[in-house]
Amino acid sequence: MSQALSGNTFGTLFRFTSWGESHGPAIGCVVDGTPPLIPLSEADIQPWLDKRKPGQSRFTTPRRESDAVKILSGVFEGKTTGTPISLLIENEDARGKDYDALKEAFRPGHADYTYWKKYGIRDHRGGGRASARETAVRVAAGAVARKILGPSVVIRGALIQIGPHKIDRARWDWNAVEDNPFWCPDRQAAQQWEGFLDDVRKRGSSAGAAIEVVASGVPAGLGEPIYDKLDSDLARAMMSINAVKSVEIGAGTAAAALSGEENADEMRMRDGQVEFLSNHAGGILGGISTGQDVVVRFAVKPTSSILTPRRSVDALGHDIDIATKGRHDPCVGIRAVPVGEAMMAIVLADHLLRQRAYRGEGA
What we know:
Largest sheet: 5 strands, antiparallel
Oligomer: single chain
Number of strands: 18
């Protein structure tokens, strides 16, 4: 997968480059590779941004951002022109001065130290580029990707674990996802999570989470063996999301405990079509989509900004104790659900365009 040396660009045929910082004047991205004549407006993008924006419940950061997107280029008379699409989201509630005390300090679990070692300078205002604020533009780019995929591909994400508390898959209900502040498919688990996360929030602590993203209607044949496999690109996409520490495809690590007989996704013919009898592979075999649901899970670490003092160091070489004050998510994994959906859409749209090019098919 080709990308700019600076690491701010993702994708091959469908690609986007993000820019901006958490507490700068704005964030945005340039989306390139979108075919022409696709209907596109801010109204197609905004609903997905509204899912991710902060301040929607007591379980997310109280930072207030409308995340209103503006299309600056690449669209004319309501349709894409085939040229780069520039998307802008202004930062409306940035409070850079809240972080002045951190100019020389390195927060444990954050990218403060590594950015300083790499660049010799860092934007201490909320983490700068390393902030989860950057994920808003991924969601915007993902909305464009959904337009390329069309309505036949349905991408849905859900929170399946907060801290040690997992959902009961027997109670999985996609209709429940929109009915609670956690995007949880298990209504009973969502009720239990409220009390757990209230306690975490009141203590000024944080909790990790796990997210599952499922794409239905994905055509068979997407993916480029050997090094641009669909699952390897999905793993890279999800690992690039802030705070993500592991990614699974299909059965994931649970496959290690299965026998060969259990793991084999057997097949039969039905009505002239191949039907798989299970989906341990997560809809991908040999790096190529099977036509089944594409299933990805990823784990997000606890938010590193907590009120409990932690041992650290500063840029002057002093040992320090540091507690991070300000506006933070007690569980950043909640707002990672729409981000995971967006990255799924971006990878699928990229591979769909690559398949069309490979097969000489028009858009």
